[in-house]
Design a protein that fits this description.
Blueprint: H1 3-7, H2 18-43, H3 53-66, H4 87-98, H5 102-127, H6 130-142, H7 144-148, H8 159-176
Length: about 180
C-alpha cells in the first residue's frame, strides 16, 4: 500500500467542521424547543380527553391482550362497516404493560404525536432548509387540531409520527437511491 493511499482521510467516517457542529447544535436546539412546546400542548391536562364507547372498546381489547385473555385478529369496525386491522390494538398494549389505565394510553399516543414535531422539523430541514423546517415545525407544534388528535384512543391519532417517518424514508430513498 502506498503512503499517499494510507494517509488519505476515510470517507466512511463522519467528521464535522466547526461550522457543521454549530449548525447541528442549532438544529438540535430548535428540535428540542419544538418538542418541548409540542409536549406541553399535547400532554397537559390529559384527564380532559374524551373517553367514550369507541375508545373503551379499543382499550378493553388491548387490556384483554395484555392479560392474555384475547388475541385480536381485527380491530373495531370502521364507519363503513369494514373491520380495521388489529395493529392499533397491538400498539396501545405497550403503555398498558406499564400502567393499566386509559390515561396511560392517551399519554403514549400524545407522546407519539409529540415526536412527530421534531421529525417534521428534520424532514423540512433536509428537504427545504432551516427556515422552512422551523416554520413547519412551529405551526405543527402549536396546531390545536394536531394536539387534539394525538390524545384520543383512536386509530387515526397514531398515524402522525409514522406518516412523517414514512415521508423521511421516502425522501431519503428518492434522493439517495437507498433507504438509509
Amino acid at each position: 500500500m502506498s503512503k499517499s493511499a494510507s494517509s488519505a482521510p476515510r470517507r466512511d467516517t463522519l467528521t464535522l467542521t466547526g461550522q457543521d457542529r454549530r449548525s447541528l447544535a442549532l438544529d438540535l436546539l430548535i428540535a428540542a424547543l419544538l418538542f418541548g412546546l409540542a409536549a406541553y400542548l399535547r400532554l397537559d391536562r390529559l384527564w380532559l380527553v374524551q373517553f367514550k364507547y369507541d375508545e373503551a372498546i379499543l382499550a378493553d381489547q388491548a387490556l384483554r391482550l395484555v392479560e392474555g385473555r384475547y388475541l385480536p385478529l381485527n380491530g373495531n369496525p370502521s364507519g363503513a362497516g369494514i373491520l380495521n386491522p388489529p395493529g392499533f390494538i397491538y400498539l396501545i398494549t405497550l403503555p398498558l404493560l406499564v400502567r393499566q389505565s386509559p390515561l396511560a394510553v392517551s399519554a403514549f399516543l400524545a407522546t407519539l404525536g409529540t415526536l412527530a414535531v421534531p421529525a417534521l422539523y428534520y424532514l423540512g430541514r433536509i428537504t427545504f432548509g432551516r427556515s422552512t423546517a422551523l416554520t413547519a415545525g412551529l405551526l405543527y407544534a402549536v396546531n390545536p387540531w394536531g394536539a387534539w388528535f394525538t390524545r384520543q384512543i383512536w386509530e387515526p391519532d397514531a398515524v402522525q409520527l409514522f406518516a412523517v417517518a414514512f415521508a423521511i424514508t421516502l425522501f431519503r430513498f428518492v434522493a439517495t437511491g437507498r433507504g438509509r
